């Protein structure tokens, strides 16, 4: 639902390190684009999503160049 998307986006944006969040409900996938020079560890990402009431199955990191090509 759109509320779910907005909740995940707002939760991740609150970290102050995120430039953009894309939530694909059909695929169950959240793509996070960090601000230049920023880093988020898996614990922070997973904790933010879980605190919003959602489960995290897997976190996969990819270089910024690869994210733009995906």
Quickly describe the structure.
The chain has helices spanning 2-13, 42-51, 64-69, and strands at residues 18-24, 29-34.
Description:
The structure is a single chain. The chain is 40% helix and 19% strand. A two-stranded antiparallel ribbon has the order 1-2. The protein contains 3 helices and 2 strands, in the order H-E-E-H-H. Strand 1 (18-24) and strand 2 form a beta hairpin. It has helices at 2-13, 42-51, 64-69; strands at 18-24, 29-34. The N and C termini lie far apart (24 Å). The radius of gyration is 12 Å and the shape is globular. It is α+β, with helices and mostly antiparallel strands.
Topology:
Layout: H1 2-13, E1 18-24, E2 29-34, H2 42-51, H3 64-69
Antiparallel strand pairs: 1-2
Query: Beta-strand level of the residues, as a percent range?
Result: 15-25%
Overall mean confidence score, pLDDT: 88
Helical coverage, percent range: 40-55%
Main sheet properties: 2 strands, antiparallel
CA-to-CA gap between the ends?
24 Å
Q: Which strand order does the major sheet show?
A: 1-2
Structural class: alpha+beta
Number of strands: 2
The helix tally amounts to 3
**Order of SSEs:** HEEHH
How much is the radius of gyration in Å?
Answer: 12 Å
Q: What ranges have pLDDT less than 50 throughout 5 or more consecutive residues?
A: none
């Amino acid at each position: 639902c759109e509320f779910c998307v907005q909740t995940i986006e707002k939760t991740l944006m609150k970290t102050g390190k995120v430039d953009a969040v894309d939530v694909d409900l059909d695929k169950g996938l959240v793509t996070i684009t960090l601000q230049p020079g920023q880093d988020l560890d898996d614990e922070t990402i997973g904790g933010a999503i879980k605190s919003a009431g959602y489960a995290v199955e897997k976190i996969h990191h990819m270089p910024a160049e690869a994210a733009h090509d995906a």
